[in-house]
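Subject: two folds for Thursday's group meeting

Dear M.,

Sorry for the delay on this. The cluster queue was jammed most of the week, so I only got both jobs back this morning. I'm pasting them in the order they finished. Each block is the input sequence followed by the predicted structure tokens. Could you check whether the formatting survives your parser before we put anything on slides? The first protein is the one we discussed after the seminar.
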Amino acid sequence: MTRVVLVNPPYSGLFIRTGRWLRETRAYQNWYPILLGYCCGLLMREGHECLLLDAEADRLDFYQTFKRIYKFKPDWIVVYWGYDSRVNDFMFADKLKCDGFKVVLASPWSYCLSHNQFKRETQISYMTYGEFDHTVLELVSENKSPSEILGLIWKDEKGEVHQNPRRPLCSPEELDRFPFVTKIYKKFLNLYNYRQTSLRYPYIDLYSSRGCPHYRCIYCVFPRSLQGKPSYRCRSIRNVMDELWYIHDFIPEVKQIYFQDDTLTEKRMRDIAQAILDEGLKICWGGECRPEISYETLKLAKESGLRTLQVGYEVPIDRHLKIIEKGTTVKQITEFAENVRKLKLWSSMSLMIFPWMTPDEIRFMIKWAKQMKPTRINLMMAIHYP
């Protein structure tokens, strides 16, 4: 049995590292460390002793975080890092290595980090890429050499960087075998440390699927970095419902459940909503979707307890929707927004400013967004990653 700490490092207490896009927050918002949570559950399933530590959400400083880690006496430490926060995160990880711990860097952001940066910017010898659950499991189990572990980037004794072949994605059957991530949260985390202004407090999140069936949007780093290719995999509806019942029965303080799926497809939303209604489960829930769900499915979902939708409209200009390969039209997204308003759903509208847009186009986008009357608007500037 190996002792493993999985840690979201400290930064400022106001930094969202575990979300889809990294940013400072002025409202103490944060997402759960969901990827670390699933990895932690897998390690525990296989007999390892784990500590999941979210130092950023707990607002711990470096000293307080190190103190908790040292007290646990781990054999391995998994550090979740972000591209924008990597100077801080690598310094944190390097200090742990200097103190004699074995450390692996894990997150989707290795997709953006060159081998030269990995060699130059950190002393750490191991970094995952793609879905990292089973890569971490094989590494900490210590029954293989680094060169044999799929999905691993590693340095040899001379400091040269090697990248092993990509690990196959988890199958739907394997996703069903993962322990419920909400059980992991309940065991290790303080649920009251997590807030999102669009969700009832306290909320909790989980995946019902991994990957994105659309996958073509040119700006979307997160699913692309985890997958490497289009691949949409779903947990069984029975398995998802069992977790929803677990939350209902054993974490009653939760006011809203949020599906962190890359996108809830129309079929997925309909299947989940119908199962909730069929089983008489009384919950409030939400999720992310594309602006192409039909009125009938949205209505069914609302009847089942859907309250919040976070929707990537991106830009209400057909020419730009084609450039970013969104696969939607202005007519389509306008109709969707009107349907959301008719059903009085809590709607968070995400819009993006792209480098080629003119000031007039940006003003038009703002005017259109106001006419759609969403509950909240997120306005983001597209920033280049390597």
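Second protein, same layout:
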Amino acid sequence: MGSKTETRSKAVLIAETAKEKKAEDIVLLDVSRVSAFCDYFVIMTANNTRQVKAISDEIEDKLEEEGYRLWHREGGRESSWLLLDFGNCVVHVFDPEARRFYGLESLWGDVPRENLG
């Protein structure tokens, strides 16, 4: 899956790409010590369902350009939440209400956390 540094670089690329599409409150959670399925969660907020789609599409396109494979995508075209699974990095794009409802940060409260936007 790559080194810890490479994986973090991928997570930061995801965050930077999301910022370009005006994602807010971007958080990297390093779940590598407590998760068997990935190393980072990248969580962010979009203002509405249209922006959820635009941000996730941009992340998909950018990571594909960089040679990263999308393993799985969850959420529909008009969804308030989308998940993009890039193997060692899992991306969650939420509208504000869905982010409050799911509260992923609180589920992983004791892992290293980095605010990137």
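Two things I noticed about the second structure. Residues 28 and 42 are 5 Å apart (CA to CA). The two ends are 26 Å apart (CA to CA).

Cheers,
T.
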